[in-house]
Amino acid sequence: MRYLCLVCFDGKQINTMPPAEWERLVRESAEYDRELQRLGHYVHAEALQSPDTATTVRMRNGKMSATDGPFAELKEQVAGFILIEAADLNEAMRIGANIPLARIGSVEVRPVMEF
């Protein structure tokens, strides 16, 4: 079954982190993606640009409106995702917990709806 791991963290924390520590987390994240690929769990992953580059769109009564920025003001914002294959939720949670950025933020693990 496929699971989406939404990687979230507080961008302000990154700004106060020593550059070497951030670079280490980025390197470990890439290494973890390769390990997931080797183990057959990796489907796809992407990092997102900062929340200030977001645009939120809504469709109401046939008209679109757009607002700069993310939909909600949250302490932690979605920073990226990893789409994985896992046997069950327990395995998906284990995979999500080992994402290096989970050490400074959180990872929401959610099953993908199958149609």
Automatic annotation (TrEMBL):
Superkingdom as given in the UniProt entry: Bacteria
InterPro entries from the UniProt entry: Dimeric_a/b-barrel, YCII
Protein name per UniProt: Dehydrogenase
UniProt-listed Pfam families: YCII
Family: Belongs to the YciI family.
Source organism phylogeny: Bacteria, Pseudomonadati, Pseudomonadota, Alphaproteobacteria, Hyphomicrobiales
PANTHER family recorded: BLL7171 PROTEIN (PTHR35174:SF3), BLL7171 PROTEIN-RELATED (PTHR35174)
Residues in coiled coil: none
Ranges for domain YCII-related: 1-115
